[in-house]
Amino acid sequence: MSIPAIGPVNLPPVVSPIRPVGAEAGGAGAAVGGTSGPNFATALGQGLEQLQHLHSTTDAAAVKAATGELTDVHDYMIASAQSGLATQLTMAVRNKAIDAFNEIMRMQA
Question: What is the pLDDT of residues 97-106, one digit of tens each?
Fold first, then answer.
């Protein structure tokens, strides 16, 4: 019995869900409260849309794997790892935002 050869691994291009918030508004030196560039709510919404897209890609790959249509298991594993890491990052940002909000609420006027 011979072992089949393993072909090359074709990785999809990496799409980073992380972008600096102030990059579109002129970088870190941009004026606070300026009207150019996205606001925090827009950046947050875009990040959540990218997270949803990653999860949709992972779900589609999982369905293909379950039905036998997936030709390369690596595609599913990569999509799963990407969506898992993006979810962990989102949860960490959410926890930090909640901690910051609670700290602001504890401040005395």
Answer: 999 999 999 9
pLDDT at 89 (0 to 100): 92
Structure-block tokens of residue 96: 């930090």
* First and final C-alpha spacing in the chain: 78
Q: With contact defined as beta carbons under 8 Å apart, do 38 and 25 qualify? A: yes
Q: Tell me how far apart the alpha carbons of residues 56 and 31 are, in angstroms, rounded to a whole number.
A: 37
Residue 26 DSSP code = T
SS3 84: helix
At 2 the three-state DSSP class reads coil
Separation between Cα atoms, residue 48 and residue 45, nearest integer Å: 5
In whole angstroms, give the CA distance from residue 51 to residue 21.
16
Q: What angle do CA 44, 51, 49 make, to 5 degrees?
A: 55
Q: How many C-beta atoms lie closer than 10 Å to residue 58's C-beta? A: 21
